[in-house]
Structures are given as C-alpha cells and as structure tokens.
C-alpha cells in the first residue's frame, strides 16, 4: 500500500523511516518532508502542510491508502476530516477530537467531568480577571495560554511577581483565555497511546523528554531537547495506573462526549505523591519521543495502525536495548536564532533524524530551531547515552548547541 506522511520534522522523519521498513508498505510519500528524508520517502516539499486541498488531491491522485499526520496544527485545523471525507484513511484525529491538545480549557473540562487526575485549575477570560487571580493565588502557579503554542505557551511562576509578569506576557490585549494550574512536582513521563474510540492500547514502554533548554532543567521551555526510553525508574505499577486511571477513561470520555479519537494520544504525565496526573494531552506523537520510541519498536508500525483500525489486540515488540536521543538545536532557540549555518559530520544512518536542515548545493544548512537528533543504543541507558554523545560530538557546526545531561535521571537510578 501507499502511505503519506504529513510534516517535515524529526518525528516525521522517523515515521517515514519506520513505515518504509514495513512489508505492508510499498511506497512512502512525505509532504512537505525534508531534504534528509529522501532515502525513505518521495518528498514533496512543493506542497505546504497547510495546503489541505492540495494534500487531499495529492493523496487521491497517488492512490494513498493511509495518511499519517505528524504535527498538531493540521490536525487541529481539520486535515484529518478532509482526508476522511475524500475516502483516504487517516492515522490522526479529526478537528474536534484534536481539541484535546488544541484547547487547554477543553482538556481540563473533560478531565474534571470524568475524574481524570490532573492539576487543580481555574480558567479566566480576560487580563483583568487574571491580574485579580494572581493577587492571592497559591504560589508557585502555572499559567497556560489556550491554543497551540509549540511548548512555549506555559509559564511556571515561582513568585507572585513572576506570576504578574506572566500575565502581562500572555495578555498582549485584554481578552483571551488562560488556565491557571496548581504546580505539580514529580517525575514527568510520556505515554503514547493508540486510541480508536473507546479502545485504547498504550505503548508499554515509555519515554522521558527534556523540555528545558539547558542542563539541569534550566532555561526556557522548548519543544524537547532530547529523550530516552525505557524509563527504568517509572515502575510497571505506575504504567498500569496510568493506563487504568488516565488512558482508558480519557478514550471513553472522548467517545461519550461525541469526539471519538483515532490516532495516537500523547499522555504527558507526572508522578506525584498522589499518583500519576496529567500535565497535558497531545493529539499526536511526541517529538523527540517518537524518534526514540520508534527506534526501539521492533514490530511493524503499519501493522499496529491496521490492528487499531480493526480493534484487534496490539502487541508492541521492543528491542532489549535502551535508546537515547540528543537534540542539536540552533544557538538561541527557543528564542531567535540564525538560519543558514552549515552542518556536517553526520550520516543518515536510520538513527539520525532531521528537523531543521535544508540542502544548499551539496551542503546541509540550518533552517529551524531544533535541527537534528542523534540516537545511541546500548545495553544500559548509560551505554546508550555515551553512544548518542559520540555522534553528537562528531557533528560539525558553528551554529548548534545541545544538552549534555540527556538521560542522567535514569543513569542515577542505574548506578
Ligand atoms: P505543557 O505544554 O502543558 O506540557 O507544559 C510544558 C511543561 O511545563 C511540562 O512538561 C512541565 O514540565 C511544565 N508544567 C506544565 N504544567 C505543569 C504543572 N501543573 N505543574 C508543574 N509543571 C508543569
Ligand atoms: N516533546 C513534547 C512534545 O512533542 O510535545
């Protein structure tokens, strides 16, 4: 069969790579893809991710049976619905179900209604209401802007002064929704769950992302600076609770509310003293979680999608090895950064996933904030880490930086 991947980042790079390995798949297309994906997909960068009608036309003209949508934006804008209406199968939710990611307030309300554990919250609709709230709310407090923000719409205010500043930042004008949340403490972990209506099958291996820009979880929030799996210090028991208390009930809740979800639901969870709680839901694979999880996945991704469609048992098979992925990002990211800087010293070896590079003549140059993720495997997390950093250190560029402590939380527990 022919499969189309939508998106042009590292997550889509690994999706195309995995789908290309499937015996069920004859041809992978990518829109817009990126220059580094050419050995695993036919790349159509002339079509934009936002050009929904063109994408539908392309899919029909090329007999695409399944489309796998990587990023959140096309999902929240209804690309899934458009493709389905045209008779193309889509791994990814429609516009309404994608609100679980697109609207923090939608997600909070549904969790509240169905008793799914998450941080206490208060929603405000205007700047004046927000300023009033921060006068005497509990500190620290977390502020989340409604709507998509690429991991940058969340501010953790450790003091009341910071909370007031955060309100100023999130409200360039008087109107708009902001969710205030109780600050939760604990280990964060990401659980990818295949969902078809009320049928939900979480990956039974999880990943841990590193959201802050700098070592020691310092600096601003980013889309993710590296990830690893498995996460040995999050126990089976916690995963079972996450499934029973979060994955199963949210799938049923979405179905009952009339927003059945089809695709992968990302559960961003935190292990508090009271047990697992939801930090966020995403309507798609995590990036960079997908790169490490799908590298570790030994079984056939396409087969799992077909099994999900038919609500058959899904048996994920994982390599024994641990996998660590280190993101190299443009200096300045997640703030402003220079583009067009040359990058060399890497091989497209099936374990190097590109999110922000383009070809200029024969060279690769930077074209985005997060640029390239290198993967190391090993018998232990520390061996995988050391292999990942050998690759990261071998990359030659004036324009990139990366964290040195990806996976250290697990290594601490290995020792
Ligand atoms: P989000 O976009 O909602 O995932 O938030 C980005 C990051 O902010 C999360 O990965 C957490 O590290 C942090 N965060 C979000 N909500 C909370 C919360 N209620 N308590 C503590 N940290 C949070
Ligand atoms: N790595 C976090 C995300 O994809 O949202």
From TrEMBL:
Pathway, per record: Purine metabolism; IMP biosynthesis via de novo pathway; N(1)-(5-phospho-D-ribosyl)glycinamide from 5-phospho-alpha-D-ribose 1-diphosphate: step 2/2
Keywords for the protein's UniProt record, in alphabetical order: ATP-binding, Ligase, Manganese, Metal-binding, Nucleotide-binding, Purine biosynthesis
Xref: Pfam families: GARS_A, GARS_C, GARS_N
Span of domain ATP-grasp: 108-310
EC category: ligase
GO MF terms, alphabetically ordered: ATP binding; metal ion binding; phosphoribosylamine-glycine ligase activity
Cofactors demanded by this protein: Mg(2+); Mn(2+)
InterPro entries: ATP-grasp (IPR011761), ATP_grasp_subdomain_1 (IPR013815), PreATP-grasp_dom_sf (IPR016185), PRibGlycinamid_synth_ATP-grasp (IPR020561), PRibGlycinamide_synth (IPR000115), PRibGlycinamide_synth_C-dom (IPR020560), PRibGlycinamide_synth_C_sf (IPR037123), PRibGlycinamide_synth_CS (IPR020559)
The EC number(s) this enzyme carries: 6.3.4.13
Catalytic activity: 5-phospho-beta-D-ribosylamine + glycine + ATP = N(1)-(5-phospho-beta-D-ribosyl)glycinamide + ADP + phosphate + H(+)
GO biological process: 'de novo' IMP biosynthetic process; purine nucleobase biosynthetic process
Family: Belongs to the GARS family.
Protein name: Phosphoribosylamine--glycine ligase
């Amino acid at each position: 069969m022919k499969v189309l991947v939508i998106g042009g980042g590292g997550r889509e790079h690994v999706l195309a790579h995995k789908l290309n390995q499937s015996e069920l798949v004859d041809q992978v297309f990518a829109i817009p893809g990126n220059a580094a994906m050419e050995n695993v997909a036919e790349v159509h960068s002339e079509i934009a991710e936002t050009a929904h009608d063109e994408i539908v036309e392309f899919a029909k003209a090329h007999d695409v049976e399944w489309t796998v949508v990587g990023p959140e934006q096309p999902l929240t804008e209804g690309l899934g619905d458009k493709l389905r209406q045209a008779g193309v199968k889509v791994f990814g939710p429609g516009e309404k179900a994608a609100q679980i990611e697109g609207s923090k307030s939608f997600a909070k309300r549904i969790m509240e209604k169905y008793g799914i554990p998450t941080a206490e919250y208060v929603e405000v609709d205007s700047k004046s209401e927000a300023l009033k709230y921060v006068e005497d709310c509990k500190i620290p407090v977390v502020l989340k802007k409604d709507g998509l923000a690429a991991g940058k719409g969340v501010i953790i205010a450790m003091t009341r002064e910071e909370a007031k500043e955060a309100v100023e930042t999130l409200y360039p004008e008087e109107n708009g929704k902001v969710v205030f949340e109780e600050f939760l403490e604990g280990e964060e972990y990401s659980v990818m769950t295949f969902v078809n209506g009320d049928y939900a099958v979480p990956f039974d291996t999880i990943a841990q992302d590193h959201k802050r820009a700098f070592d020691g979880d310092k600096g601003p929030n980013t889309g993710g600076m590296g990830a690893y799996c498995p996460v040995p210090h999050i126990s089976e028991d916690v995963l079972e609770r996450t499934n029973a208390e979060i994955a199963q009930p949210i799938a049923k809740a979405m179905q009952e509310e009339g927003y059945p979800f089809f695709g992968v639901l990302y559960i961003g969870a935190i292990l508090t003293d009271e047990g697992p709680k939801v930090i966020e839901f995403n309507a798609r694979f995590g990036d960079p979680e997908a790169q490490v999880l799908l590298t570790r996945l030994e079984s056939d991704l396409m087969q799992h999608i077909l099994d999900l469609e038919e609500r058959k048992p899904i048996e994920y098979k994982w390599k024994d090895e641990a996998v660590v992925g280190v993101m190299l990002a443009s200096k300045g990211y997640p703030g402003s950064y220079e583009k067009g800087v040359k990058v060399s010293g890497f091989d497209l070896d099936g374990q190097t996933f590109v999110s922000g590079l383009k070809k200029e003549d024969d060279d690769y140059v930077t074209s985005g904030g997060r640029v390239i993720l290198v993967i190391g495997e090993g018998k232990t997390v520390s061996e995988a880490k050391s292999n990942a950093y050998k690759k990261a250190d071998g990359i030659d560029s004036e324009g990139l930086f990366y964290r040195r402590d990806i996976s250290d939380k697990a290594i601490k527990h290995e020792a």
